[in-house]
Amino acid sequence: MRGNTMEELERGPAVTGLRPADREGISGARFLPEGELRFTPENRAAMESRESFEAAAQRGEILEAPCVLCDCQTMELTLELPDGMRGIIPRGEAVYTPDGEEPRDIAVITRVGRPVQFRVTGFRDTPRGRVALCSRREVQREARERWISALTPGDLIPARVTHLEPFGAFCDVGAGTVALLPVDRVSVSRVSHPADRFRVGERIRAAVLSLTEEGRIYLTHRELLGTWEENAAPFSAGQTVRGIVRSAEDYGVFVELAPNLAGLAEASAEALPGHRCSVYIKSILPERMKIKLVLIEVGEPAGVSPGRYAENMLARKHIDRWLYSPEGCGKVVETVFSP
User: Fold this and answer.
1) pLDDT at residue number 137
2) Is a pLDDT exceeding 90 seen at residue 246?
3) 139 assigned to some structural domain
4) Is CB count within 10 Å lower at the N or C end of the chain?
């Protein structure tokens, strides 16, 4: 950005700080994924007016507002606040890094156009009006200390999909804290890209797969979509049903009947991965965990095909072990969550 830098524009009287007691140890802090705090009753009330905003700031509340600008010279972010007030997040306050290093430019720039969670650390009166000095880093640090650090493998948590890559889906698990859901953990029925299953901005549930000493968080999703028997229950031999071609190999075509269930049809030159199809079910063999199919017709591209969570997973908060395979099956497919 050309012209005056944000630092030059904001020069004025010294910062008026908030009392330390008002910024630390807030028992009511909520570490929701960014984008979900903005429309809560508490955040709406804080954003009604300048007075309500400043009162919420004094109480040390975690707030959320849209980021509308990044000054590419200073890498400061600007937030849209009530009554024309602006919020400023300096570069060093934009992202929490466990090693204390300055955040990368891309990590700051990509906040523009998105909701951002923050705490107000002070106010400054400038020729352009009153400015709130804000910290996203402090909210993320507290989320790490009070939320992420308490997680263990097998915990079931809410997450929000923020970015999709061929190798996996990046998810916000609280206050912009990033976790990776690898593509092979999306569902038992393999997808070529997480975009086959998720949309950016979608709210999902996932299980914590692992947490590394470096602070990385890995998630898994397939355990919430049901076992082989639960997915196979609606189907029976002799039915003709719809499916999605997931891969075409020399020895056959894998067809997804449900996100955690696939069958095998004979090889066909007409099979187009990612396209809907109709198949005839020849047989269902629980002892071998196999479904034999006959490909009848290949149709249009399938688009996003979300999964349905198993009912017994909706209220659970933790699982130690998940067994996908039917009882008596020679092949065991399971997830054991190790602390």
Assistant:
1) 96
2) yes
3) yes
4) C
On whether both 101 and 22 belong to a single domain, the answer is yes
Q: How far is Cα 74 from Cα 96, in angstroms, rounded to an integer? A: 18
Residues 136 and 183 in one domain: no
> Per residue, what are the HEC states of 113-132?
CCEEEEEEEEEEEECCEEEE
Choosing from 224, 255, 284, the residue where a domain stops is 224
Q: Which DSSP state fits 143?
A: H
Give the CA dihedral 74, 79, 85, 89, nearest 10 degrees.
-40
Nearest to 148 by CA among 177, 168, 119, 117: 177
Same domain, 13 and 140: yes
10 plus 129 within the same structural domain? yes
Instruction: Render pLDDT for 21-58 as a digit per residue (tens, 0 to 9).
Output: 232 333 344 689 999 999 899 999 999 999 999 999 99
Residue 29 structural domain: 6-145
- Who contacts 331 (Cβ-Cβ below 8 Å, separation ≥6)? 288, 289, 325
pTM of the model: 0.85
- Provide the terminal-to-terminal Cα distance of the chain, rounded to the nearest Å: 48
Per-residue model confidence as pLDDT tens digits over 305-322: 888 899 989 889 999 999
Domain count, the chain: 3
What is the DSSP secondary-structure string of 67-135? Answer: EEEEETTTTEEEEE-GGG-EEEE-GGGTS--TT-PPPPHHHHHTTTTSEEEEEEEEEEEETTEEEEEEE
Whose structure tokens read 């034999």?
A: 292
